[in-house]
Specification:
Elements (H helix, E strand, L loop, with lengths): L20 H27 L13 H31 L5 H24 L3
Helix pairs in contact: 1-2, 1-3, 2-3
């Protein structure tokens, strides 16, 4: 009897969109644009606290503070988590642009949630 070696792993291919140059370029561009979006979102989130300047005692300060905190911090958290996840997927040769897009959509949704929390308490 002769010993046979098991077949090795299949060769890596970049067929399809994952691992392609377009995916890499789009992912990197979106990650870099995300920095600007996060900076603008945090800037506007900090200045949105002025919406409560005309409040009397009827405004809920806790909800206003939570809304502002969500508007300031969640874009950066989403950018960091989904950016790292996208870079890891790029390094593995998988489709990464959709991960970064999903992070951007989640960041916008959380930003709007923070805005709703802020404006819901202002009379």
């Amino acid at each position: 009897m002769t010993a046979t070696n098991p077949p090795g792993p299949p060769p890596r291919t970049t067929a399809g969109f994952g691992g392609s140059t377009a995916d890499q370029v789009l992912t990197v561009v979106l990650i870099l644009l995300g920095v600007g979006g996060c900076a603008m979102g945090s800037f506007f989130g900090l200045f949105s606290i002025m919406a409560s300047d005309g409040c009397s005692e009827t405004c809920n300060d806790t909800m206003i503070n939570i809304g502002v905190a969500v508007m300031v911090f969640t874009p950066w958290i989403c950018w960091l988590v989904f950016g790292i996840w996208g870079i890891v997927r790029l390094a593995r040769g998988k489709l990464a642009v959709l991960v970064v897009v999903a992070g951007g959509v989640l960041a916008v949704a959380l930003y709007v949630l923070g805005l709703v929390l802020l404006l819901a308490t202002i009379d």
